[in-house]
Amino acid sequence: MECIPGVTDLKRVRDIIAPYIHKTPVHSSRALDTICGCSLFFKCEQFQKVGAFKFRGATHAVMTLDKKEALKGVATHSSGNHAQALALAARNRGITAHIVMPQNAPKVKVEAVVSYGGIITFCQPTLPDREATLQKVRKQTGAVEIHPYNDYRIIAGQASAAAEFYDDVPDLDCLIAPVGGGGLLSGSILSTKYFSKHTKVYGAEPDQANDAWQSFKQKKLIPVEKALTIADGLRTSLGSLTFPIIADGAEDILCVQEATIIRAMMLIWERMKLIVEPSAAVPLAAVLEHPAVFAGKRAGIILSGGNVDLMNLPWLDPQHFGKH
Amino acid sequence: MECIPGVTDLKRVRDIIAPYIHKTPVHSSRALDTICGCSLFFKCEQFQKVGAFKFRGATHAVMTLDKKEALKGVATHSSGNHAQALALAARNRGITAHIVMPQNAPKVKVEAVVSYGGIITFCQPTLPDREATLQKVRKQTGAVEIHPYNDYRIIAGQASAAAEFYDDVPDLDCLIAPVGGGGLLSGSILSTKYFSKHTKVYGAEPDQANDAWQSFKQKKLIPVEKALTIADGLRTSLGSLTFPIIADGAEDILCVQEATIIRAMMLIWERMKLIVEPSAAVPLAAVLEHPAVFAGKRAGIILSGGNVDLMNLPWLDPQHFGKH
Hints:
The structure is a homodimer. With about 325 residues, the first copy, chain A, is α/β, with parallel strands linked by helices. Chain A has two domains: about 5-50 and about 155-320, Rossmann fold (3-Layer(aba) Sandwich), CATH 3.40.50.1100; about 75-140, 3-Layer(aba) Sandwich (Rossmann fold), CATH 3.40.50.1100. Chain A has 14 helices and ten strands. Chain A has helices spanning about 5-15, 30-35, 55-65, 65-70, 80-95, 105-115, 125-140, 150-170, 185-195, 210-220, 240-250, 260-270, 280-290, 290-295, and strands spanning about 25, 40-45, 75, 95-100, 120-125, 145, 175-180, 200-205, 250-255, 300-305. In chain A, the strands form two sheets. In chain A, strands 1-2-10-7-8-9 form a six-stranded mixed beta sheet, with helices on both faces. In chain A, α5 (about 80-95) runs parallel beside α6 (about 105-115), α9 packs across α11 and α12 crosses α13 (about 280-290). Chain A is globular and about 55 Å long. The interface of A and B includes residues 266, 306, 313 and 316 of A.
């Protein structure tokens, strides 16, 4: 894909990935509606394969490689869900996934990549070393790089989550997606443009990693410097392909505090009995911090993933105690 | 209901409770199927209102009271999900629920009863004091006692979970329900008898509260003496109404160790992204401890509830550390 995916692309993507992905359910909660003063619908991508929406984009990218490219495998650097997603997508096509991961990646995510057959190369936890290591791996193997978000094949794959959402809940006033690199948000914007024109799309972002907000407000790409948020999936910066789509199509980017992310995560666990990772709780945190924006509205939230380390829950971490 | 519910009763129950309950979804997990060597289907009663199947029986009992009885309200003693269930069912009918709870009941369960409008009377955490306090409350108020399980209206209500399950997954070789007082298990046996005759029904019970197993094997009701299991919903003993149905209709009662309950609970949380309470993990623990019984079979598991205290998770409790 050489340019921004159009309506035909987005429809074709759904056919391509359908045999591999789960069509995830939508949940709601009267208790949360009461707390928030609006009607909330939650698209449960934590029930997606590998436990996150990332499997959509990775599957689309891997399944559309031509045969010759595919033979040499795929490669990426990721400490998170994209790593697992690419490993499983590659296994589904019968090719190798080379994953560059920082040495300090959560154990649960390392084990998951291994369980999906991914070949891991560890590196220093710095962006320069991640990129250098990835280039080394690519040189050695000839594998095709699949970037976690700055790739139209990935964006088009992630777009399928919002498209499915609109199938199930056709009259949403707004849709809120978390924003890290912007793959899910930009994909959601494209699906909204073609399948639910009247819906306003919001990005939800931690204060501690507010590059999308800064970029959106200043109308130029401003990378994040230091992202200390517990929402580990959202520590990355927008890319050159995701930013223009977001700048053009997002209604707004809403920023939230760390304590609100933890509170939102606990609400989803306690009230909805759904396991979500901190990043997935950021849109609900946005509703809690910006109630006026959503008052009385029908708002869709994409719960982006559920991969958490059950031994290290944020509300049990002394670092966060007393802050929520 | 004066005698064991028949097929007409069970069908009528579903109509009576339909406006109030959630029809809960069935989930499955390829990862767990691989681990267990069978095909597992999980009926998600943690997504039921109040977070547990108990709302089915309580709703049926409350909605079938005659007007005059209902006016004085309902009463029960319960430290668990039945308390919340009865409180919400009563609120739905516009009557009062009087709930006798031990002083040491988990805070999260006390708060839930209050949030559903239940009137709490605290008592000592002993069965004699619970019963004495309940009789005092009944005398003062004239409220009708709704026992958590030893009541055919409750049994018939709980039966609806298995009946729905068979609607969605019609060809189960076996069904596994946790067993405490036996309301869910006896109800499941009745639904199986009428709606899925060829399915074998198993009870799953903690070793630490194995009164159902003892009673089943010795063919007489043997109450539990000391139930120290973390599966707090299963600490009670079978009742005079649930025991005969179980003795007659269960294929077997399978006992499990505490460490296996914790392991099963973690597997459901990590692999399925579902929040379940320890009691709800006991059937999967039975599959893990008795793999030969289920090898190659299609087995249905009722995930009975999801009310846990997120600040006190069993795998983070030093008391349980190193045991799993």
